[in-house]
């Protein structure tokens, strides 16, 4: 990555262009020395994972120039599409030059456990990896009801350190940073974390009768099982910001060999 030019960062999120967490993250990445461009969904797009859905008409997907508060000199756009679509478009001719790193967040709410699969914040970072870029997802553990004044600084204080860790790795590396919603001075040490088995809550869906087809009603239930001590959920609860490396979708070779071996063992047991 040695070059006379500054690395370029695309800042996006799934909470939408009007999220103060996005603005705080863009400022932190710029202050860390990277060239910054902001492009985020025009409306909240939480929970869309790596969807590349966009709002299309005869003229394509609309892009609206915006000004990020406090960053008047930073190019910014509200895009009528999901965060992964924005990242995908950036690598297919929209942004020139294309970014070197995608930084996604700061998400209102932690992205923890294997349920990060469903996160639009994480989906954007993983899509960056598919383009051969670095990806960083940043989330603040605000709970299910966000506070009036989230501690964005708890996350932005760690951005320079985590960017250094990320950029020391190979391009395509994706990291997920979660921080407690506390004063930056109250943070405990940054810890590497395993993904919990699922997440910090379980979604339960009930089918209720009503109209001709009924209605699906979702609700949240706390997990009853204690998370492992080295999991992201447990470490966050103990006051630690957590860092986890994520892998994008990849194939696992040898499936036919495993099937043959399994059939052989089954035949031996029945003989």
End-to-end Cα distance, whole Å, is: 59 Å
Question: How many structural units, i.e. domains?
Answer: 1
Shape: globular
Q: Under the CATH scheme, which architecture would be assigned?
A: 3-Layer(aba) Sandwich
Helix content: 25-40%
Q: Report the order of strands and helices.
A: EHEEEEEHEHEHHEEEEHEH
CATH topology: Stationary-phase Survival Protein Sure Homolog, Chain: A
Low-confidence stretches: none
Helix and strand composition category: alpha/beta
Please give a handful of descriptors for the protein shown:
hydrolase; Stationary-phase Survival Protein Sure Homolog, Chain: A; 9-stranded mixed sheet; 7 helices; two-stranded antiparallel ribbon; 13 strands; metal-binding; 5'-nucleotidase; SurE; 271 residues
What report would you give on this structure?
- The protein has 271 residues and is of the alpha/beta class.
- It has one domain (8-197, 226-270): Survival protein SurE-like phosphatase/nucleotidase (Stationary-phase Survival Protein Sure Homolog, Chain: A, 3-Layer(aba) Sandwich), CATH 3.40.1210.10.
- It has 7 helices and 13 strands.
- The protein has a 9-stranded mixed sheet. The chain has a two-stranded antiparallel sheet with strand order 3-4. It has a two-stranded antiparallel ribbon with strand order 11-12.
- Helix 2 (83-94) packs parallel to helix 3.
- It is globular and about 75 Å long.
């Amino acid at each position: 990555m040695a070059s006379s030019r500054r690395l370029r960062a695309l800042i996006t999120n799934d909470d939408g262009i009007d999220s103060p967490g996005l603005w705080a993250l863009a400022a932190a990445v710029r202050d860390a020395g990277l060239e910054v461009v902001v492009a985020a969904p025009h409306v909240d797009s939480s929970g869309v994972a790596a969807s590349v859905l966009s709002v299309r008409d005869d003229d394509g997907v609309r892009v609206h120039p915006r000004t990020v508060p406090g960053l008047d000199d930073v190019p910014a756009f509200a895009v009528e599409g999901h965060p992964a679509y924005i990242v995908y478009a950036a690598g297919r001719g929209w942004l020139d030059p294309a970014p070197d790193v995608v930084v996604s967040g700061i998400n209102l709410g932690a992205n923890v456990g294997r349920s990060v699969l469903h996160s639009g914040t994480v989906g954007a970072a993983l899509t960056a990896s598919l383009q051969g870029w670095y990806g960083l997802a940043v989330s603040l553990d605000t709970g299910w009801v966000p506070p009036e004044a989230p501690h964005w600084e708890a996350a932005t204080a760690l951005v320079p350190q985590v960017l250094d860790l990320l950029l020391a790795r190979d391009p395509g590396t994706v990291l997920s940073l979660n921080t407690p919603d506390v004063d930056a001075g109250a943070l405990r040490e940054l810890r590497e974390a395993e993904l919990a088995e699922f997440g910090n809550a379980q979604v339960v869906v009930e089918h209720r009768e009503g109209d001709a087809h009924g209605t699906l009603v979702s609700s949240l239930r706390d997990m009853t099982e204690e998370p492992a001590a080295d999991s992201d959920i447990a470490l966050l609860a103990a006051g630690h910001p957590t860092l986890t490396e994520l892998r994008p979708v990849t194939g696992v070779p040898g499936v036919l060999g495993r099937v043959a071996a399994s059939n052989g063992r089954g035949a031996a047991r029945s003989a």
